[in-house]
Amino acid sequence: MKRVAILYGGISAEREVSLSSGQQVIMALAQAGYDVQPVEVGSDLGALIGALAHKPDVVFNALHGRFGEDGVIQGVLDWLDIPYTHSPARASALAMDKAASRAVFAAAGLPVADGRVIDIAELETHDPLPGTYVIKPLNEGSSVGVEILHEGGNRRAEIFRNWSFGSQALVESFVPGRELTVGVLGDRPLSVTEISAAHAFYDYESKYAEGGSTHVIPARIHPDTHEKALHLALAAHRALGCRGATRADFRYDDTQGEPGKLFLLEVNTQPGLTPTSLLPEQAAFCGIEFPALCAWMVENAACRA
């Protein structure tokens, strides 16, 4: 019986999400017949390494956010020579760094919104982009810290004063239209989901609160757009050097009619595995139940890619 250590919790702003993902994975892998070892991760790296001293066959990485999906824990596991789920260290670091991933996407010819990296102090004095724009921390996930600033609004100085995500940020022109997402397993894009958030956009609460969003799968979009979204998600997965499971998020501007324009926002290398998460929903739509999805990740784990 394969011994699987499940890492969950962590020390990022997404700890609660990771705890939820981890609990779901623990139950699923036990149901699938694995010998599971839950490892709730805290701030003590030595304790984490000690918990892995028995060298499990595989580590299931259910961590989210900084130190869990930015290449840090992946590097530790490479050092320990323990195979782990999801993407390797370099791909994880690239995907988590929004400026770096934008550069990779642009170099690969993938469509991204107009934008640039700014010093956060710019917000105190002027708008860094014309019209409505989005400001994002460079190294957070789950929409933590994301703000939409509407043309003519007066929230710039307030956001600057309360900013706690470093001295820089990514600003991008706001793309009107719809929110779409595509899960990828290895070389297989799954389906396209349209997300309708209960709030102004698909923020943290919309992602994880019960009733925070509604999901339509498959998305009711033009067939050409559906196929293009699948193609772009797989292309982004490959451009970053990902493996295992990822999820690509898009804005779809159909305000002038269909087929509209797709804009790639980001690739999530550690998609949520909570009861409200999108990747398990897409997998189930494709006939892959949750225990089988988690088992697929375990069986496709690798090390030192």
Question: Key features?
Answer:
single chain; 305 residues; alpha+beta; D-amino Acid Aminotransferase, Chain A, domain 1; 5-stranded antiparallel sheet; 4-stranded antiparallel sheet; 12 strands; globular
Structural account:
The protein has 305 residues and is of the alpha+beta class. The chain contains eleven helices and twelve strands. Helix 1 crosses helix 11. 34% of the residues lie in helices and 25% in strands. A hairpin with a 2-residue loop joins strand 8 and strand 9. It is globular and about 60 Å long. It has a five-stranded antiparallel beta sheet with strand order 10-9-8-11-12. A four-stranded antiparallel beta sheet has the order 4-7-5-6, with no helix packed on it. The chain folds into three domains: 84 residues, Rossmann fold; 130 residues, 2-Layer Sandwich (D-amino Acid Aminotransferase, Chain A, domain 1); 59 residues, Dna Ligase, domain 1.
On the 0 to 100 scale, the average pLDDT is 91
Shape: globular
Instruction: Please count the helical segments.
Output: 11
Intertermini distance: 25 Å
The biggest beta sheet, please?
A: 5 strands, antiparallel
Order of helices and strands: EHEHEHHHEHEEHEEEHEHEEHH
The strand line-up of the biggest sheet is 10-9-8-11-12
Structural class: alpha+beta
Q: Any idea what the CATH architecture of the largest domain is?
A: 2-Layer Sandwich
Total separate domains: 3
CATH superfamily (homologous) name of the largest domain: ATP-grasp fold, B domain
Strand coverage percent: 15-25%
- By CATH, the topology of the largest domain is D-amino Acid Aminotransferase, Chain A, domain 1
The portion of residues assigned to helices is 25-40%
The tally of strands reads: 12
Rg from Cα: 19 Å
